[in-house]
Design a protein that fits this description.
six-stranded mixed beta sheet; two-stranded parallel sheet; Rossmann fold; alpha/beta
């Protein structure tokens, strides 16, 4: 990958050798992988390879979304490729019209030969044995691939599609993808292997295969709050010879669209090509609802992994913002503590929690619902003190009354009376 200043970077992905037949030979994944860098540079991008025309069209809309959300950081650029496919229908029809002018008798003879060959092909196909996964022809066959890390969002997506709980939205899930280099650093090989084995064990009764991959995409795209979707979607697209659908579990709900997170229900679908359709899944259900649903999948529930801050990247520290919010969610839903968490949170610990802006916003949302109970539990009042202390810490002096979070604080105060 060559940047406008002439600097070159190497983006790589690594898969087990037995998945080589399923690696897509187009450059779709490169168009997606580098979309944020292209928008941030503001320079038109040329891709030396074959790219889906559908994807290029969708990426134009994807850029419109992100440049509207962050005009100071991103701008729309022109993305072109050496070759675009598939060929337009109009071009195909022109070719067919030309072919129709051929001699009628020659056409009839050709049709007779084709019919004979088709019959022979059908007879030969019936004698072929059924091939196992990893040995079949490299063509998408109504098969979905889901991202899976062992967290709440991805576990919920895997469970509900595997159990066909989504009605008309149910996708034919066949396998799950876990990428080394995203939530576990590339240098931490042992932690990744421990998590991979645990995920395989969790999936062992589902009939789903776990595909492991590694990539340096995060190292080249450090603004991960935004760019993670490009890393995730490009990794899924690498396997579009085997899978024609991709499932990405939602982080936020439709009611939280103000959170401009990389993966979201607005722009994820705009990363689809004619080879692979991307589905942003589960945005109608909040984390509390997902937790409650996962209690019916004990293997996943007791091995939930949500933490990015623990020294051992395969464990939950139990004290960071993400762990704390997860533990508070279990309290709110009156669910037992999963075995993968070292301990729960006391009221004193809750009062002392420190949140950054994004986690504080989630804590304020949780508090708003918890305060609606007739008699809020002691932990709810502890969380109220925690939220107020964190808001005072993060809120610039003199702006509290007019800010969005100042209005939230006043609303919470009224709800608690």
């Amino acid at each position: 990958m060559e940047k406008p200043d002439g600097q070159k970077e190497t983006l790589w992905y690594r898969l087990p050798e037995n998945y080589r037949p399923f690696v897509d030979d187009s450059a779709d994944y490169l168009a997606v992988a580098n979309i944020f860098q292209a928008m941030e540079s503001g320079v038109d991008c040329m891709i030396h390879g074959r790219v889906s025309r559908t994807l290029l069209r969708n990426l134009s809309e994807f850029q419109s979304v992100w440049s509207s959300w962050f005009p100071e950081r991103y701008r729309s650029v022109e993305i072109t490729a050496d070759t675009e496919d598939p060929v337009d229908i109009a071009e195909t029809e022109d070719t067919e019209d030309t072919a129709d002018t051929a001699d009628t008798e020659d056409t009839a003879d050709t049709e007779d030969r084709e019919n004979t060959e088709d019959t022979e092909d059908i007879e030969n196909t019936e004698d072929e044995p059924t091939k196992a996964f990893g040995e079949e022809a490299c063509h998408p066959s109504n098969a979905a691939l889901a991202t899976y890390t062992g967290g709440i969002d991805s576990s919920y997506t895997v469970m509900r599609h595997n159990r066909k709980l989504c009605g008309r939205m149910t996708q034919p899930l066949k396998a799950c993808l876990f990428v080394h280099g995203f939530d576990i650093p590339l240098v931490d090989i042992e932690a990744f292997e421990r998590v991979r084995k645990r995920l395989e064990n969790t999936l062992s009764r589902t009939g789903l295969e776990l595909v492991s991959m590694a990539s340096n995409h995060k190292e080249l795209n450090p603004q991960w709050d935004h760019t993670h979707i490009a890393g995730v979607a490009s990794s899924l697209m690498l396997l579009s010879k085997r899978f024609d659908r991709a499932l990405i579990g939602s982080t936020y709900t439709y009611n939280e669209l103000s959170m401009k997170w990389g993966s979201n229900p607005v722009s994820d679908r705009m990363l689809s090509s004619h080879r692979m359709t991307v589905f942003h899944d589960g945005a109608e259900t909040g984390r509390g609802g997902k937790m409650a649903a996962l209690y019916d999948w004990p293997e996943a529930y007791d091995d939930l992994r949500v933490c990015w801050s623990a020294p051992n990247k395969d464990e939950n520290c139990g004290t960071c913002g993400k762990c704390a919010l997860t533990l508070l969610g279990f309290k709110f839903k009156k669910l037992p503590l999963p075995k993968s968490f070292p301990s729960g949170l006391s009221e004193a610990t809750i009062e002392r929690l420190e949140f950054d802006e994004s986690h504080l916003s989630a804590a304020e949302t949780l508090l708003r619902f918890a305060l609606k109970e007739a008699e809020p539990a002691p932990w709810v009042m502890a969380l109220k003190k925690c939220v107020e202390a964190n808001r005072n810490r993060l809120e610039p002096a003199g702006k509290e009354n007019s800010s969005f979070y100042g209005r939230i604080k006043r609303r919470l105060s009224r709800l608690s009376k």
